[in-house]
Amino acid sequence: MRMKQGNIYPFEYVLEYDDATPIDLSNATVTLTMTLDGADMPTVDKGSCTIVTPTAGKIRYHWVAGETDTVGMYIIEFLVTFQDGATLSIPSSDLLWMFILPSANGVA
Asked: Is the Cβ–Cβ distance between 96 and 16 less than 8 Å?
């Protein structure tokens, strides 16, 4: 995934199991953590996601100003918390990368 430095348009993603089946997010909550590769602290630490289409696993994250200002490769992980308290990290068997590219206009 890619986006330009300083852009804060909503980010949408479909959460799936390893077999590509959408995760049913009915009565669940989802958070996003994003960490610059090699950094000790996340840029986004458990930011709340909006569940757009629960049965299709579709979520939306609204960036906050400053979260996309630093160019680089970021690891993104979602944490699904189900109604019974069970949790699931997505992706569970790989890494999800976000590349924030330099903007010709600088930080918006």
From this structure: no
Cα angle value 35/36/38 (rounded, 5°): 105
CA-based nearest residue to 24, from 62, 43, 64, 51:
51
Tens-place pLDDT, residues 20-37: 999 999 999 999 999 999
Using CA atoms, how far apart are residues 28 and 95, in angstroms rounded to an integer?
22
> Given this model, what pLDDT does residue 104 score?
85
Handedness of CA 42, 47, 53, 57 (dihedral sign): positive
CA distance 26 to 96: 23
The pTM of the full predicted model, rounded to 2 decimals, is 0.92
How far is C-alpha 81 from the chain's CA centre? 15
